[in-house]
Amino acid sequence: MGEAFGAWTIGDGIEDELMPLISSANVATGFHAGDPNTMLKMLKQAKHFGVGVGAHPGFRDLVGFGRRHINAPADELVNDILYQLGALRELACLAGVKLQHIKPHGALYMHAARDEELSRALVKALRVVAPDLYLLCMEPSITYRVAKEMGQPVIREFFADRDYDASGSIVFKRSVNALDPQAVAQKVLRVCTEGVVRTVEGQDIPMDVDSVCIHSDTPGALGLAQATRELLIAHQIRIAGFGERPPASA
Q1: What are phi and psi of 102, to 5 degrees?
Q2: 185-237 per-position pLDDT tens digit
Q3: Which of 52, 88, 103, 159 could form a disulfide with 24 if both were Cys (CB 3.0 to 4.6 A apart)?
Q4: Which residues partner with 164 through β-bridges?
Q5: 2-11 tens-digit pLDDT
Q6: Could you tell me the CA-to-CA distances from 224 to 11, 61, 173, 188, 214 in Å, in that order?
Q7: Whole-angstrom Cα distance, residue 161 to residue 215?
């Protein structure tokens, strides 16, 4: 959310309509998109609709929207992440909102998923500056393993508008075409009720998830969110924030 910069907008400009449909929002923090005014606007909207907010830091790549890899040392990338987290956290304080999570964006997210040095440096830093902040990542990732090992709260997420391969990782794309809302909703329902997802290779693989992600810049994202929410509710699946989740033993 908030993936604009000054006069420029990304996606369909649907934040006003999308915010009431979701339980958690990733807010762009300035390096791949976003600016202070947009960030504050998103925080105020989230507060109004009771939506949990998290920082969405990316590579320092406005031109490439954070979807191009930048070859930088792990400590430099962690400093960039903390810089962005701090910016949103100060604005959140101004808006009367407490951040609940952090989720790296785009190519930075995928880099951390496969790079132990970066994941370990990031989690080590979070244990100092934000030990209660949920870290969003994929379960079959180094980030998830390191976070569990080091005691950082973690949320396993599922990408409704991305394809998966046999390894359980998303198939990374720089751009995504419009998707069938009902097909996306059925995919989400299946992972919630059956714990499986169909891969691009045509096989079903098991997948345990805590959260469902829909990118606001995916063409037709509002329709995807509406269809998914309606189908989940129709099957008595409650949409709730991270702090409202039942204990693991329930």
Answers
A1: -140, 140
A2: 999 999 999 999 999 999 999 999 999 999 998 999 999 999 999 999 999 99
A3: 52
A4: 170
A5: 988 877 777 6
A6: 13, 27, 18, 11, 8
A7: 7
8 Å CB contact between 212 and 160: yes
Domains of the chain with bracketed CATH? 4-240 (3.20.20.370)
Beta bridge partners of 8: 5
**DSSP codes of every residue in the chain:** ---EETTEE-TT--HHHHGGG-SEEEEE-SSSS--HHHHHHHHHHHHHHT-EEEEE---S-TTTTT-S-----HHHHHHHHHHHHHHHHHHHHHHT----EE---HHHHHHHHH-HHHHHHHHHHHHHH-TT-EEEE-SSSHHHHHHHHHT--EEEEEETTS-B-TTS-B---S------HHHHHHHHHHHHHT-EEE-TTS-EEE---SEEE--TTSTTHHHHHHHHHHHHHHTT-----GGGPPPTT-
